[in-house]
Amino acid sequence: MNLTISGHHLEVTPSLRSYVMAKLERILRHFDQVVDVKVLLTVHKQKEKDKRQRAGCTVRVKGQDLFVETQHFDLYAAVDALADKLDRVVMRYKTRQQGPRATAKRLDSGGSQLVQVSG
């Protein structure tokens, strides 16, 4: 997996780089077929201080690119929100790749019964 972390209007410090890498480790635990990850951290020069810090991430997996972007007034909070969103997107992609049989099997093993409706 190739990981690229870049900054726009800010310098990516080693502590910020390690923080982003630690947050992205969670995604790799759930899904190991990631080819390429690009993270872009930006600070927009807006007059209001609200949500100036943005974090965007493009994850290239087999056959598709997944893109997530968040914004917050604190860059570390934006990275946290980015990791949460990216985790949900990757899990949804993984579920879609496994197909409807895996979903039905998971529902059946959860204690609920599947009911076939004819109509």
TrEMBL record:
Protein name, as recorded: Ribosome hibernation promoting factor
Subunit structure: Associates exclusively with 100S ribosomes, which are dimers of 70S ribosomes.
Name of one Pfam family that matches: Ribosomal_S30AE
Coiled-coil intervals: none
Segments crossing the lipid bilayer: none
Region listing for Disordered, in residue ranges: 97-119
Protein's gene: hpf
InterPro entries in the cross-refs: HPF/YfiA_ribosome-assoc (IPR050574), RHF-like (IPR036567), RHF/RaiA (IPR003489)
Gene3D superfamilies to which the protein is assigned, alphabetical: Ribosome hibernation promotion factor-like
Keyword list, A-Z: Translation regulation
Biased composition (Polar residues): 110-119
